[in-house]
């Protein structure tokens, strides 16, 4: 994230909107989560199409392989694109693939769409924009670069807040990387640290055209309400579109809400029709019409044993699906169920904290130790950010102890020499089960920013397949192996000392990081 906003105490944080959970969980196995499809499209796939990655290097190499193999589309949404040699190699891969598509008859229609955050992508003289301009100049008809600018950064506020600090108001934080019909969901950005020694999470959904179509449409929708990067490094809005910080804020947010909800609702309708058709086909017995229809469509896909639910959170636009689903999962988790929750930035919303402390499931919460926090060792005010997270962690742990919940709610700190920690998400183990049947993976950190300020997306993956459950379990175990359990003695260590000014300032500005 970004350094603290010095003007934060002068700003009025947005008022949280409280939404009632949709309904309680159904009783049996993975099917208990089908209520999620009342909110978002449900994509049924085979578990053989899901691959869980474990390392930054694996993630980086897969990006390059997928870019080189793309024939129809490359769609990448990230906070920013870094400016180092590894990032340049990615851009070179894109250039080679686009060049080949110009020559080849097999893939003349390749399109590349990149969505980044405007403020983060414009930071410094050499930045995400300057990295991508050569592609725009060489392939103007095939490449689109959209830069989302939050509507909340405008007027005098926009003029007063310097670079870096302006990123605290709101960001495009979604991380989706798709290539033809293959989709990578992650919390990782397109930067060298995320390719080498910054631990995150990554899942590949292979040969999943409906899911790829959904995220293509979602990125297109956000791109349509974003600034478009031009070949001369200027930006402009699409013709007829309300400007995010010069135009009317209410009108802009209404248009953005409408565009994104159109994508969600149209995909949901498509999937419901597909589900109904499949259900009818499967229950038609020896119906000749059913058999002919199945043969005509070439539908030889195996029965789905895994379901993907995209969860979108864009509170500036009045969209809070991820928040509703997450709160419902925490609320309805039964006694003896186990939830492993991880975040690189431990700054839970009050609602999430209340649910964790007030419900019945067991929690194992993995967070960054100060040394693996991305801001550790930073200069200036930013160098105190790890101490602020320690203070927030200490307050929460003290509350756990006060309520005598130490056995049920356990904190664990990730620590690994030479690495930083950025993983986020959760794994849900039903009571009596040694394997998770659900995971959340994507960009949200479960903090105030994720819920109220930024554009976020993750997926809920629900599976009945034991092999995929084992993959998810191993992913969780691998992350938690690098951790130690937090106790009161943890906060007595010299490196956990928090200066008085940090304690005083943190409550005022915790909603900005």
From TrEMBL:
<keyword id="KW-0594">Phospholipid biosynthesis</keyword>
<keyword id="KW-0808">Transferase</keyword>
<keyword id="KW-0443">Lipid metabolism</keyword>
<keyword id="KW-0547">Nucleotide-binding</keyword>
<keyword id="KW-0732">Signal</keyword>
<comment type="function">
    <text>Functions in the biosynthesis of the anionic phospholipids phosphatidylglycerol and cardiolipin.</text>
</comment>
<keyword id="KW-0496">Mitochondrion</keyword>
<dbReference type="GO" id="GO:0005739">
    <property type="term" value="C:mitochondrion"/>
</dbReference>
<keyword id="KW-0444">Lipid biosynthesis</keyword>
<dbReference type="InterPro" id="IPR016270">
    <property type="entry name" value="PGS1"/>
</dbReference>
<dbReference type="GO" id="GO:0032049">
    <property type="term" value="P:cardiolipin biosynthetic process"/>
</dbReference>
<keyword id="KW-0677">Repeat</keyword>
<dbReference type="InterPro" id="IPR001736">
    <property type="entry name" value="PLipase_D/transphosphatidylase"/>
</dbReference>
<dbReference type="GO" id="GO:0008444">
    <property type="term" value="F:CDP-diacylglycerol-glycerol-3-phosphate 3-phosphatidyltransferase activity"/>
</dbReference>
<dbReference type="GO" id="GO:0005524">
    <property type="term" value="F:ATP binding"/>
</dbReference>
<keyword id="KW-0067">ATP-binding</keyword>
<comment type="pathway">
    <text>Phospholipid metabolism; phosphatidylglycerol biosynthesis; phosphatidylglycerol from CDP-diacylglycerol: step 1/2.</text>
</comment>
<keyword id="KW-1208">Phospholipid metabolism</keyword>
<feature type="signal peptide">
    <location>
        <begin position="1"/>
        <end position="19"/>
    </location>
</feature>
<feature type="domain" description="PLD phosphodiesterase">
    <location>
        <begin position="168"/>
        <end position="194"/>
    </location>
</feature>
<protein>
    <recommendedName>
        <fullName>CDP-diacylglycerol--glycerol-3-phosphate 3-phosphatidyltransferase</fullName>
        <ecNumber>2.7.8.5</ecNumber>
    </recommendedName>
</protein>
<comment type="similarity">
    <text>Belongs to the CDP-alcohol phosphatidyltransferase class-II family.</text>
</comment>
